[in-house]
Specification:
heterodimer, A: mainly alpha, Helix Hairpins, 0% strand, B: 4 domains, 25 helices, 2 strands
């Protein structure tokens, strides 16, 4: 499959994520949208690394190590994202305990 | 030998040191020490000047180069002194007369308190320093530094008694009027730089003569440069239209009037034109303007002097008139005669001013000659030296003024008989008003108060000694320039100055008989004028003036004319700027900037809504914007 399709799908995912962050007030949904954006980026990394690998093989590099660092990077992102999710969800739980809501518009006390 | 002349920098440096010591130590030094420092430094400069004079006597000239003062691209203006016959003659006049006046001041100013006394001497020394810089500079820029320096000192000394507001106004007037001339001078310097690429006398003159390939002056350039320089000279040397500051400058102490406003500073313009004689000789139009301006000034000032009643004002207008004579000489090409008259005028006018100072001193500050009279009995030395000065300025042989004035009249005669007629008439007026002053002041009955009559006394030796020396110089000073008709080789001054300045040869030289006749006529008429003055003023009675005399007494209303034409409109303009332009425009601009920032920040503050969503939206939008710029606009 040509790499442009992956780009389209990643753009679509990222845009959905951005729009979600911008429009929704529910902290959990915003969180999910952030994950969506992260994964759009992951998708791009994997797609481009595969593309580089194919190009290297076609050029005669049969060991196939080219582009593997992009895929490695994705694993790191997934690990960090998992840690972030646990912290983020914990914050949301604490927020719910304090103000009995997960609406971020209530979180504007710093203003006053 | 030339290497020895390298130390001429000491000549201006010593008065500068005197200025620093007196200026900084004025509250710590005794008056005696202050006056010794002030006079001693000038005396040392005088001794050095005599030595310099002996070095250049045989026609040597020397340029002492010290360092590069300004260096921009191809333009190099060195700090250099030009030592030649012209500058050495001025050095002698400045330091010699300057020293005598310092000695005189030591006694004249003795009633001032210590701080002011020190201030006075420091200004005087600074003046001598600037004046020396002016005449020694080897290019127009150094000359200009001295030119500005003497202007500053003139301002400081006119306003020396700064407690009196009208004196401060006189100082301002002098400074502003000089400034007008200085601007023209500055433009002339820039003009020279742009056309000749240099301001050195030698370089500019060789460019003017066409000796340098690649650079040359057109006729228009030379005319404009000389005209601009002349405008500068009219400011400094008090010629029409910038002469009204000089009579007001009499607000300063009398020795200052003698030194600055009679003997030295006001002759700076004549020095400058004599120095630039090569340029002027190439600009006949400018020469005519110089001659006619000088002549008109001489006549106007002499007519005003006829009816002045302030002893110093008479001398001031007389100075303006004599300066006019010098410009007449310059304009008719008789540069040597002009320099000669500068020299003799320095002697007799300094003498007359110092004499008037002695009179004022004796009268306890009184300057109005209507309240004097009969002083000859009490002030014998002052009287006889004053007589010597009057005879010298009137031009009776063999006193000094005769020879220099005769040279000028002769030059005017060779140029045009009309000029000669006016100049002779002015010379007669000179004799008349000087002897009017002499008779009203010194003969007849005393018209002051009884208290003043009690107080009358001859001045101390420190004041009379300079008077006597100057009187001797006024008598004998002219003998260095006895005209050639009396015998070959008598005109030593022309021979001495020839390497630096030479008068233009005249197209129609007059015969010896004519020359004798001219001298005889002028001497005879001057004697008639003196007799007339004797009969009119020997027993002076105060009376009201009317008609033309009233015009003369009010100085032709020139000051009022200037007030009406320039000063008042400028005051009004200034008032408009103060009441309208400054608060509305300038303040409005400054306050407007402040208000705009305040208003803008109040609006921007609303962006800080505390809504996380709006922050994120802004973040995304700006990122999209940046990416858009990155991808689509930046190539």
């Amino acid at each position: 499959m040509p790499v442009i399709n992956y780009i389209y799908i990643a753009i679509a995912l990222f845009s959905i994520g951005v729009v979600g962050v911008l429009t929704r007030r529910n902290a959990i949904i915003i969180f999910m949208c952030i994950e969506l954006m992260l994964n759009a980026v992951n998708l791009m990394l994997v797609a481009f690394s595969k593309m580089h690998q194919n190009a290297a093989i076609l050029a005669g590099d049969l060991a196939g190590n080219a582009g593997s660092d992009g895929q490695l990077f994705v694993f790191f992102i997934m690990v960090v994202a998992a840690a972030e999710v646990s912290v983020g969800l914990a914050i949301i739980v604490m927020m719910y305990r304090n103000i009995h809501s997960v609406d971020i518009n209530f979180l504007n006390r710093l203003k006053h | 030998m030339n290497n020895a002349l390298q130390i001429v920098y000491l000549i201006p440096l010593l008065p500068l040191l005197g200025f620093l010591v007196n200026g900084l130590g004025r509250n710590y030094m005794s008056k005696t020490l202050i006056s010794w420092t002030g006079s001693g430094t000038v005396l040392a400069s005088f001794i050095l000047s005599v030595w310099v004079f002996l070095q250049v006597k045989d026609g040597n000239t020397y340029v002492a180069h010290y360092f590069d003062f300004i260096k921009v691209d191809k333009l190099v203006i060195p700090f250099a002194f030009k030592i030649d016959q012209l500058s050495s003659l001025f050095l002698l006049i400045i330091t010699g007369v300057g020293f005598l006046i310092h000695v005189y001041s030591a006694s004249y100013m003795h009633e001032e308190n210590r701080g002011h006394y020190g201030r006075y001497f420091s200004y005087l020394n600074l003046f001598v320093f600037s004046m020396l810089l002016l005449v020694m500079g080897a290019n127009y820029v150094i000359l200009f530094i001295g030119w500005e320096g003497v202007g500053l000192c003139s301002y400081l000394l006119i306003g020396y008694w700064f407690g009196n507001q009208s004196y401060n106004k006189a100082a301002n007037k002098a400074f502003v009027m000089n400034r007008i001339g200085d601007l023209a001078f500055l433009i002339a310097i820039f003009w020279m730089i742009s056309k000749a690429g240099s301001t050195g006398f030698a370089e500019v003159f060789s460019v003017a003569k066409g000796e340098v390939t690649g650079q040359s002056f057109t006729g228009f350039d030379i005319t404009m440069i000389t005209l601009l320089l002349f405008i500068g000279a009219t400011g400094k040397s008090a010629q029409i239209p910038l002469f009204t500051w000089l009579p007001d400058a009499m607000a300063g102490p009398t020795p200052v009037s003698a030194l600055i406003h009679a003997a030295t500073m006001v002759t700076a313009g004549i020095y400058m034109i004599a120095r630039s004689n090569i340029l002027y000789s190439m600009a006949p139009l400018t020469m005519d303007i110089v001659a006619w301006t000088g002549l008109a000034t001489a006549l106007l000032a002499a007519s005003i002097a006829l009816k002045q009643n302030d002893i110093k004002k008479v001398l001031a207008y007389s100075t303006v008139s004599q300066l006019g004579f010098m410009f007449l000489a310059l304009g008719t090409g008789a540069y040597v005669a002009a320099v000669f008259h500068v020299m003799t005028h320095a002697f007799f006018k300094a003498l007359l001013f110092l004499g008037s100072g002695s009179v004022i001193h004796a009268m306890g500050g009184e300057q109005d000659i209507r309240n004097m009279g009969g002083l000859s009995k009490k002030l014998k030395i002052t009287f006889w030296t004053f007589v010597a000065g009057c005879v010298a300025i009137a031009g009776i042989p063999p006193f000094s003024g005769f020879f220099s004035k005769d040279a000028i009249l002769l030059s005017a005669f060779e140029k045009s008989p009309v000029m000669y007629g006016i100049a002779l008439f002015t010379a007669l007026l000179t004799a008349f008003y000087m002897f009017r002053l002499l008779f009203i002041t010194f003969t007849g009955k005393f018209r002051g108060t009884a208290q003043q009559a009690q107080h009358l006394h001859e001045s101390p030796a420190a004041m009379t000694l300079p008077l006597i020396i100057l009187a001797l110089l006024s008598i004998a000073g002219g003998w260095v320039g006895i005209p050639e008709v009396f015998g070959h080789g008598l005109d030593q001054l022309s021979a001495f100055l020839r390497p630096a300045v030479a008068s233009l040869p005249h197209a129609h030289p007059v015969s010896h008989e004519t020359e004798y006749a001219l001298m005889g006529v002028s001497t005879l008429l001057v004697l008639v004028m003196i007799l007339a003055a004797w009969f009119m003023f020997r027993n002076y009675q105060r009376k009201e003036t009317a008609g033309l005399a009233k015009w003369l007494e009010n100085k032709w209303y020139v000051d009022e004319l200037y007030d009406f034409l320039l000063v008042n409109p400028l005051h009004k303009l200034g008032g408009w700027f103060r009441s309208v332009a400054d608060p509305r425009l300038v303040d409005g601009l400054v306050n407007g900037v402040g208000k705009a920032v305040q208003y803008g920040s109040r609006q921007l503050r609303l962006l800080q809504s505390g809504q996380v969503g709006s922050y994120v939206l802004l973040m995304v939008l700006s990122m999209v914007l940046f990416f858009g710029i990155q991808f689509f606009l930046r190539k």
